[in-house]
């Protein structure tokens, strides 16, 4: 468990953030200037807080009141930046072991680096370079892994290449990972815990599925980025139509393409703007997914939009509709309605293991 309490004044900007980061991926999300990089630099020791406390388990890294401030070299922190920052004159093998050689064979296998060891950074793709940077951070035997928007400089194919490796890292290690990102799909796919920063303060924090499904979080995420995360498993295949059937607590969903073997668990992000509501079960429509749901929350936005929280089984969904639709349909908390989700509304980037 990583415990973070940081106060830092930098010119007119004030950071005052407090939260716990358990094992797994804790995503730090927020708009530019919200304090994300200042926060992780304080964890790394690159920025000294004015006050607060940073500890991993029982080991205190910073405590202003006790005058404890462990130097960067003694913090056992692995740091992966936006750019890989590899040594161009060294091959992959020597880049990996530059800071240590801890569990080298395991790290190389986990990140699929075996075929790259003799190559130099100039001959690697962007995704391959980031995998090497991640491997180098792990080989220093970190107690904490910091990742500052590590996929921001990659195009969509390179992101798709590296995301499964980050998922594998999340699932195989017990190292707390602090993952800074402004990409909601990335966060929804990778994070176990989500911390949303707004103007240097923690606006909301908690399990990623719980946070993303809350209507009041929509202003911090942006209306187009808002959406709920549900855990599903592959229940079947419709081979003639090239569809995969997914089961979750609220029913079954059909999604395009082959998504995995029967029984495989998948995490699915359903964008709020792609959820349509109906008072009665619709007929004669092209959408393949119609779920009975109960309205749990209605939160008006600043403009014409309204965020509607929905309960589907034990899971929460989120819809974004207009105030006009809300009034015309006479929707209210506690009402049972139907959520309509097009199979093509969920993209490959919104599906993870």
TrEMBL record:
Q: Which Gene3D superfamilies match?
A: 2.40.50.100, P-loop containing nucleotide triphosphate hydrolases (3.40.50.300)
Q: Which Pfam family would be a valid example here? A: ABC_tran
Q: Which PROSITE patterns match?
A: ABC_TRANSPORTER_1, ABC_TRANSPORTER_2, MOP
Keywords, comma-separated and alphabetical: ATP-binding, Cell inner membrane, Cell membrane, Membrane, Molybdenum, Nucleotide-binding, Translocase, Transport
ABC transporter domain: from which residue to which, for each copy? 1-224
Domain Mop, first and last residues per copy: 284-350
ATP-binding keyword on record: yes
GO molecular-function terms, A-Z: ABC-type transporter activity; ATP binding; ATP hydrolysis activity; molybdate ion transmembrane transporter activity
Question: Any one cellular component term from GO for this entry?
Answer: membrane
Q: What's the superkingdom here?
A: Bacteria
Q: Which PANTHER family match?
A: ABC TRANSPORTER I FAMILY MEMBER 10
The record's section on NCBIfam families has: modC_ABC
What protein name applies here?
Molybdate transport system ATP-binding protein
Q: What is the lineage of its organism?
A: Bacteria, Pseudomonadati, Pseudomonadota, Alphaproteobacteria, Rhodobacterales
């Amino acid at each position: 468990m990583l415990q973070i309490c940081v106060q830092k004044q930098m010119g007119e900007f004030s950071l005052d953030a407090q939260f716990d980061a358990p094992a797994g991926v804790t995503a730090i999300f927020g708009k530019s200037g919200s304090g994300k990089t200042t926060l992780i630099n304080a964890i790394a020791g690159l920025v000294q807080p004015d006050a607060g406390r940073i500890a991993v388990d029982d080991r205190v890294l910073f405590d202003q009141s006790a005058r404890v401030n462990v130097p960067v070299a003694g913090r056992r922190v692995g740091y992966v930046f936006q750019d890989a920052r590899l040594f161009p004159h060294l091959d992959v093998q020597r880049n990996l072991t530059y800071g240590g050689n801890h569990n080298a064979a395991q790290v190389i296998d986990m990140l699929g680096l075996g075929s790259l060891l003799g190559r130099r950074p100039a001959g690697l793709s962007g995704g391959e370079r980031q995998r090497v940077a991640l491997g180098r951070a792990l080989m220093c035997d970190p107690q904490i892994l910091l990742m500052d928007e590590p996929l921001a400089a990659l195009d969509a194919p390179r992101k798709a290449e590296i995301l499964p490796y980050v998922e594998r890292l999340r699932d195989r290690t017990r190292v707390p990972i602090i993952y800074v990102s402004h990409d909601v799909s990335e966060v929804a796919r990778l994070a176990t815990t989500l911390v949303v920063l707004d103007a240097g303060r923690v606006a909301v924090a908690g399990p990623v599925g719980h946070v993303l499904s809350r209507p009041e979080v929509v202003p911090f995420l942006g209306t187009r980025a808002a959406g709920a995360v549900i855990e599903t498993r592959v229940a079947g295949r419709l081979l003639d139509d090239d569809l995969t059937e997914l089961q979750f607590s609220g029913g079954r969903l059909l999604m395009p393409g082959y998504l995995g073997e029967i029984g495989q668990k998948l995490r699915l992000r359903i964008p709020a703007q792609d959820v349509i509501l109906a008072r009665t079960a619709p007929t004669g429509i092209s959408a393949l997914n119609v779920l009975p749901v109960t309205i749990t929350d209605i939160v008006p936005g600043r403009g014409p939009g309204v965020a509607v929280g929905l309960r589907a089984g034990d899971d929460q969904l989120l819809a974004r509709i207009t105030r006009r639709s809300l009034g015309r349909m006479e929707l209210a908390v506690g009402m049972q309605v139907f959520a309509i989700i097009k199979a093509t509304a969920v993209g490959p980037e919104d599906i993870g293991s």
